[in-house]
Amino acid sequence: MLFKRKTATLAAQGGELTTEPAAVPTRKQKDQKEKLGWFEKRSRRRRRRILFEEALGWILVPAFIYLIYLGIRAVGGIPKELIDFGNELIGMVLKGKG
After folding, report:
1. What is the pLDDT of residue 9?
2. Is the residue at 71 inside a domain?
3. Per the domain annotation, does 1 fall within a domain?
4. Which end of the chain is more exposed for a tag (fewer CB within 10 A), N or C?
């Protein structure tokens, strides 16, 4: 429950302090599962997805880079033709078709 919607009285929203004590939930209310609205459900799903994607990215990106490195070493380096082709493409992009 990182982000929970806060409920406040109209007097508290206007800047006035309320003298009524806050309602303390009973044990029975605490035992029941909290019902979430669509906004809370969506934000929790989004938060979980973002955390999952971050963790996946921190694992997969270095793994892909390492696998590319191993592939290059297995072949014996990058072939000269491939480097020339890459330089030619970069030159065309920088120069333009003009």
Report:
1. 57
2. yes
3. no
4. C
